Amino acid sequence: MKSRTMLAASVIAMAALFPLATHAQHQGQEFFTAQNIKWGTTPSLPGAKFAVLEGPMNEAKQFIARIQFPDGYKIPPHFHSTIEHVTVISGVFAMGHGEKFDQAKLTPLRPGDVAIMQPKTPHFAMTTGQTEVQIHGLGPWTLTYVDAKDDPRNK
């Protein structure tokens, strides 16, 4: 009984700390809550929302970013200059390998699932439902479309 009381007290004490972690910096630590992430856009993924949590992504430093996609969003075949780690936060983020978009080659990734894409490995993706992913890696990070006609920055 005594251990249950101590466990309950520990849980209550930890729960009391969470409201303080809204987006605070303290002695080299930074905390984010989903509600306080500042979303913007990126020209390489029009229609998606983008937020850099740690960066910058264009320097040889670690980065963490979140991307929110609408339902049915398709990312044409592309690759990155450095390794990309993708963790699905919500929705379904289906990914496939190759230089041509092929829906039959998609592997659906659900919340908690992870994909690791090696540098310069062509891949493509599609979402089902509102989808949020977190990417992280080491910069400088770039997104290069296999077919330049697919790159919205060229339009």
Secondary structure elements and pairings:
Elements: H1 2-17, E1 25-26, E2 29-30, E3 49-54, E4 62-69, E5 74-80, E6 84-97, E7 107-109, E8 114-117, E9 123-138, E10 143-145
Antiparallel strand pairs: 1-2, 3-4, 4-9, 5-9, 5-10, 6-7, 6-8, 6-9
Supply Rg: 19 Å
Biggest sheet overview? 8 strands, antiparallel
* Total domain count: 2
Low-confidence stretches: 1-23
CATH class of the largest domain: Mainly Beta
Please give a structural write-up.
With 155 residues, the chain is mostly beta strands. It is built from 1 helix and 10 strands, in the order H-E-E-E-E-E-E-E-E-E-E. It has one helix at residues 2-17, and strands at 25-26, 29-30, 49-54, 62-69, 74-80, 84-97, 107-109, 114-117, 123-138, 143-145. The strands form 2 sheets. Strands 3, 4, 5, 6, 7, 8, 9 and 10 form an 8-stranded antiparallel beta sheet that branches. Strands 1-2 form a two-stranded antiparallel sheet. A hairpin with a 2-residue loop joins strand 1 (25-26) and strand 2 (29-30). It is globular and about 45 Å long. The N and C termini lie far apart (67 Å). Mean pLDDT is 87; it is low at 1-23.
